[in-house]
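Minutes, project check-in
Item: structure for the 502-residue chain
Input as provided by the requester:
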Amino acid sequence: MARPPGQVRPAGQDVEQAALSPHSSATLSTYRKAQGYDLSVADESYDVIVIGTSQGGRFLPLDLAKAGKKVALVERDHLGGVCVNTGCTPTKTMVASARVAYQARRGAEYGVRTGPVSVDLAAVRERKRGMVAGARENYASRLAQDGADLIEGEAHFTGPKTVEIALRDGGTRGISAPVIVIDTGSRPKPLTISGAQNVPVLDSTSIMELGALPEHLIILGGGYIGLEFGQMFRRFGSEVTIVQTGPRLMMIEDDDVSDEVAAILRDDGITVLTSATTDRVEEAGGGRVRLTVRTPDGERQVEGSHLLSAIGRVPNTEGLTLAAAGIRLRDNGFIEVDEYLETSVPGVYAMGDVKGGPAFTHLSYDDYRILHANLLGREKASTRDRIVPYTVFIDPQLGRVGMTERQAREQNRAVRIVKLPMSAVIRALETGETRGFMKAVIDAHTQQILGAAVLGAEGGEIMTIIQVAMLGKLPYTAMANAIFTHPLLAEGLNSLFMTLDA
């Protein structure tokens, strides 16, 4: 049975003494030592320590500070975590630039003459940098207003409730708290294939700092990171090849979704290689790289000007010395938590990407909601049964929520599947955005929607409408019979769900 969440205790000797049995003769130091405080290191007490400032860690310290808690916020790098600095904000800013280039080239389809289109990647990069800087500055100004103590440096545990910080400006500082929240996020997984150490390898962070377009970008990995960058740089003007080890792109999706995504990328001029295992990489002369890959058709070589590794992410836990605190890790290196986000050490929590599972900013924000409710509201909010949607920001977008058809079949559920091509949606026809389809999985007994995939223009927005219906446990007939504004893309939901009764 899961533990109920711990509660924030105000710091100070009186409160800590009150936590002891009324009849105990233990001293304060005995109590603190028993609670896991390393008295030889910790020289300053807080109510809460938050390590890292991703989406959840940005807001939780501020709320705790405004509630009167003494809060230390530790950050070794830029404020804002992955989303602000190297994830959502910069990538979607660059995706927007790529879409403008794509639409400009399509001008003639709409009767608009534009002339030759070229992309100034350095200018795209500067626009991206400006967006990131603005987001950082906005958060830094809130910190100063709300009273959290920002400590710039790298933290590591010296005990279950004590932390030593290697300060950015030199020296160390020891602090302690009865409640600690780990929010250190993740980073790109390093490429370890033969020869990788001898050639330049880009990752999802460094590729956004290029000032000139790659002639031919080779991407290892067929997940959402590889696909977003692949389409982006193809639209900027680069030749792009995606090399995927699995038999399909986006292996977590249903086959028809993966196949349609691959067809769209190939339609954009991207070379997609599946069931392709990379044996080695080497220099090819003139600053180029050469991959040797094994495919069902035999060995082949792929040569390009730049190599992007998009093979996954690993948790930022290596510097935390979690063993000193007794905090358990999962087999994949991510921090183990229960449904209340509490680690194996009572009073120590983990939130966001560092605990594993889907690496989405909105999931990190929901972790914040749970910890806010439990630490400040004295509730018992948990991660149980939460519906986690996501959107892949290729164009057209892929919005996904709930079960796939494959997952439903594996659970032996009685289901009905509905599917509608975007070419059957009037708004898609009018705007010339007809690629993709809508698909939903329906429980045959309850008529409730179990999941959906919307691969189409604004697919994430349309998916969200279905998600709200799922949250309300509405039958599919509510969507079939709803009045949606004409002509919106959402109007296609009428046609999608009406096909069940046709």
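Outcome recorded: The first helix runs from residue 13 to 18.
No further action items on this chain.
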